[in-house]
Amino acid sequence: MVRHLQLTLMSIAVSFAFTACGGGGGGGGGTTIATNDPGTGTSSTGTGAGTSTGTGTGTTTGTGTGTGTGTTTPAQAALPAALPASAVVTMSCPDGGSYQCSGSAPLRTENGVTLTSSGVYAYGKSTSDLATPNPNVASATGYAPASGGIVEMRVAKDANALPSGTTLLLSNLGISWDGKTERPPIIENFLATQGRVTLGANGAVVVGALPASTDLGFYDYATKGAAATQANYANNHYFPRTAPSRCPSDVPAASCATTEASAPQIASGDWRAGGTEPDVLRADRLHEDGDIHAGNDQPAANGTPAYLTGATGPGVPFPGAKGYRSLDNFGYRYANLTRWVTQDGVNIVEWNTTNEHNQNRRGLVSYGDVTPPASVPATGTANYVGVVRGWYTPNGSADPTPFRADATVTVDFGTRQATIAVSNPVPDDSSTASLPVALTMTAGFGATASNVANYMTGTAASGQMNGGMGGRFFGPVAGAGPAEAGGTFTLNASNGQSIIAGFIALRR
């Protein structure tokens, strides 16, 4: 018997609201995007990675030298080791010259952040689904850091750097339909029409026709059962369609969704006029990945269509039957920061397993047109200002709060050191809730002329939380240094308290 995960319209509406605040969740569009990312604030809960308690100059306990005011300066960071000479450390996007991308192959992971050819990323996993018993199989909450997965971002931009479309690619994130093998890679381009999304031979995104539910050579569950081709049940966009949606009985007919997505919402920031607010692209989609009801059962002897157990009509039942995806892409001319979420049905009963439930993954990617390593200056200094976006949870079980903050980056090309300060944090909903995410980090970047001269890495600490950061330089070098900088960072404590965030900044 099929057991649909109850992604009712109420939970979908909550997801929409979350995304409207710059967080994850929800599909189908319909939210209103402000000219700038919503919310402002100036509250700050700290000014450094440690505090001192004296009234004069003193030494803190391992995080730096205090001045008696609560501000500390992190110690000088070690420089990253060079990559193999064959490593690609500049941007090359398979979808063409109008795209900016992060690169598909992880080069290394250090200090909790993964380096790719033209980006850095960090991500984590939900925790509610790890509890016994699971408190809510229809949803997933909480957060804990994770590693080992592959995250890739691509964004299309016009000649003025305004975004127009995006693709999120995810794999090896510990998402399994059958409880044994990793589900097929996710290729999410937030398509608002029917179609099937694949990657071409060169890695470019290809949108093809969606096979009909009667194509049992493609949808082969009817003949192979749980040994069916999982890849044929992934990255399909089934709605809108002629046949009506078949929502669960507890969803009013008038509220039963008939579409998976709408066009991405796009707003330009004020960075072109001297501000720091980036352009914003927001995209959401309800998905049905892994639902075997995409295809029919074998027809009756007289040719009458038949449906697999649990279905009362052709195709998947309704938009969002197996989850949703959402992202916000914040961008300047060369640098981007993406905050993404995917919620997915796992241990799906029709794939010969039990305990079907939902889990989610979420993360940050800083990526774009990186500065060629040989172009990074050997001397001089530069200052950058920009924005931070991320999530914070006080204990790992509470759902993460999306937040925004200011970023200041000070770079010394002679010593190969960068100091990144996060200040003025405020929840995305502009509430006055206190968030202990203000901190200062020091990163070292590669030696002059090395192939990691455009890459920085370092440790990070805030209160009881420890972790690290990774970053890149973006754009051409003119005057004092590269045009832009960006990065991601992740910290956590033994009690589950965690920060995962990223930044992009302009040279000013």
TrEMBL record:
Signal peptide positions on this chain: 1-20
Biased composition (Gly residues): 47-68
Keyword Transmembrane recorded: no
Annotated GO CC locations: cell outer membrane
InterPro entries on file: OMP/PagP_B-barrel (IPR011250)
Keywords carried by this UniProt record: Signal
Domain of life according to the entry: Bacteria
Name of the protein in its database record: Transferrin-binding protein B C-lobe/N-lobe beta barrel domain-containing protein
Organism: Noviherbaspirillum galbum
